[in-house]
């Protein structure tokens, strides 16, 4: 027998499978064939204009509404095959709901409202319900009625109720839609903790700042999947400019991503030097055509696509980064300079070769690897040429010269 210890096989655990899902309300088609999967532990932000089918989708996933055709499987349970009593059990055991309206029973206290969810699970345990309320910071509000609680506190009761049965899937429909900023912060913090604890979360939100905290954003439009960061990549701007065109939901080609990164890097460097970036002096494929995988193309044409994607703004031959473009440029520059440091310091590779390798690496390094390299190198402040490395989330107060 081999003495080699084998790593356990990696199973891509898809917890939610949605295939060609349609929902018809009479003549109105609320969902017109939506397909995507959600992995265990993933936090997905579901976005899209009013009427695009977000609530319908969430309600079907939660067994509150039935589907017209297609397939929805949650945690191995095929929802279209469930009988009425099985749906009730599915709702009680597998999912936790948090709505924009808190839906608390007005004549029950906070702890009784939580116990109501236990009741549907056929066990009531007041101590456990009180514990759940303590976890959302409401230990001193157990016997308050909903009317005696603020909106944020009511939403926290609703979250405690949603979690009491340890659901595998948390469905939240605009959970912060009715909250002021302070309570929104508290409620989001609870969702972050749930995410860190491994819960799968599908959350409808209109707020791009909230959506950015999720692992992935999915946008619906007119009952169709319009945009998914898992397909487009996180660098893709949130409001897809290709909306309603045949190209919508076609991933930007890898070649283009490399050209974009390359141009963004040059524009960023002009900014560092305090100079305006002239379109005419930028190169889409490197000063000496040094990106072998990418075919040559005039920078002006690539810049025009980048402008369509709102990465840059072009004016009188001058190129400026948009906030999205600037954030992405910063990431590319950071990865490039970290890679140069790694090659130079750790592998003693000479400057030119380190630069060439870094040009390739900057497209490959994931955010996790970026942080690991940075931590390994002791959060360096500069690249081997003395240029600043933009700090990352891992660097807080740890950077060394
Ligand atoms: P969203 O949550 O994205 O705002 P919804 O899922 O609530 O959108 O609605 C999608 C479409 O389905 C809308 O046109 C809405 O009017 C319609 N709709 C939703 N629920 C019903 C229903 N119970 N009966 C008829 N039409 C509905
Ligand atoms: Mg809705």
Break the fold down into its secondary structure elements and pairings.
Blueprint: E1 14-25, E2 28-39, E3 43-47, H1 54-61, E4 69-74, E5 77-78, H2 84-94, E6 95-98, H3 110-120, H4 126-135, H5 151-163, E7 169-173, H6 181-196, E8 200-204, H7 208-213, E9 216-221, E10 224-228, H8 229-232, H9 254-272, E11 277-278, H10 299-308, E12 312-315, E13 318-321, H11 323-347, H12 351-361, H13 367-376
Helix pairs in contact: 3-4, 3-5, 4-5, 5-6, 9-10, 9-11, 11-12
Name the descriptors.
single chain, Rossmann fold, disordered N terminus, 13 strands, 13 helices, binds adenosine-5'-diphosphate, binds magnesium ion, six-stranded mixed β-sheet, alpha/beta, elongated, 38% helix, Arc Repressor Mutant, subunit A, four-stranded antiparallel β-sheet, 2 domains, 401 residues
Architecture overview:
The protein is α/β, with parallel strands linked by helices. The protein folds into two domains: 14-229, P-loop containing nucleotide triphosphate hydrolases (Rossmann fold, 3-Layer(aba) Sandwich); 252-394, Winged helix-like DNA-binding domain superfamily/Winged helix DNA-binding domain (Arc Repressor Mutant, subunit A), CATH 1.10.10. The chain is built from 13 helices and 13 strands. It has helices spanning 54-61, 84-94, 110-120, 126-135, 151-163, 181-196, 208-213, 229-232, 254-272, 299-308, 323-347, 351-361, 367-376; strands at 14-25, 28-39, 43-47, 69-74, 77-78, 95-98, 169-173, 200-204, 216-221, 224-228, 277-278, 312-315, 318-321. The strands form three sheets. It has a six-stranded mixed sheet with strand order 6-7-8-3-9-10, sandwiched between helices. A four-stranded antiparallel sheet has the order 2-1-4-5, covered by helices on one side. The longest helix is centred in the last third of the chain and has 25 residues, at 323-347. It is elongated and about 70 Å long. Residues 1-12 and 234-252 have low confidence and may be disordered. Magnesium ion is lined by residues 54-55, 173.
């Amino acid at each position: 027998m081999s003495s080699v210890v084998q790593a356990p096989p990696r199973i891509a655990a898809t917890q939610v499978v949605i295939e060609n899902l349609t929902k018809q309300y009479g003549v109105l088609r609320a969902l017109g064939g939506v397909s995507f999967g959600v992995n265990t532990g993933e936090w997905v932000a579901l976005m899209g204009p009013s009427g695009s089918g977000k609530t319908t989708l969430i309600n079907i996933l939660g067994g509150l509404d039935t589907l017209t055709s297609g397939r929805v499987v949650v945690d191995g349970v095929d929802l279209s095959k469930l009988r009425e009593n099985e749906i009730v059990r599915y709702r009680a055991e597998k999912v936790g709901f948090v709505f924009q309206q808190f839906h608390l029973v007005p004549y029950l206290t906070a702890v009784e409202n939580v116990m109501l969810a236990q009741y549907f699970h056929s066990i009531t345990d007041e101590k456990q319900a009180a514990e759940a309320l303590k976890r959302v910071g409401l230990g001193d509000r157990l016997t308050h009625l909903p009317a005696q609680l603020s909106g944020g506190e009511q939403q926290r009761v609703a979250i405690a109720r949603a979690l009491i049965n340890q659901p595998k899937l948390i469905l939240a429909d605009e959970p912060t839609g009715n909250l002021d900023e302070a309570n929104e912060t508290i409620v989001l913090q609870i969702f972050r903790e749930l995410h860190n604890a491994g819960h799968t979360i599908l959350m409808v939100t209109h707020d791009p700042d909230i959506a950015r905290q999720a692992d992935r954003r999915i946008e619906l439009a007119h009952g169709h999947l319009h945009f998914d960061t898992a397909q487009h990549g996180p660098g893709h701007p949130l409001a897809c400019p290709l909306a309603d065109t045949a190209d919508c939901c076609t991933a930007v080609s890898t070649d283009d991503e490399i050209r974009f990164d390359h141009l963004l890097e040059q524009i960023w460097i002009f900014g560092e030097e305090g100079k305006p970036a002239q379109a005419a002096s930028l190169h889409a494929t490197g000063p000496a055509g040094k990106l072998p995988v990418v075919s040559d193309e005039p920078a002006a044409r690539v810049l025009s696509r980048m402008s369509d994607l709102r990465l840059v703004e072009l004016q009188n031959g001058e190129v400026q980064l948009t906030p999205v473009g600037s954030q992405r440029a910063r990431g590319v520059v950071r990865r490039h300079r970290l890679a140069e440091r790694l090659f130079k310091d750790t592998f003693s590779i000479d400057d030119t070769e380190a630069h060439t390798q870094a040009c390739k690496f900057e497209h490959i390094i994931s955010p996790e690897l970026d942080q690991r390299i940075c931590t390994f190198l002791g959060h360096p402040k500069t690249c081997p040429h003395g240029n600043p490395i933009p700090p990352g989330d891992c660097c807080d107060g740890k950077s060394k010269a």
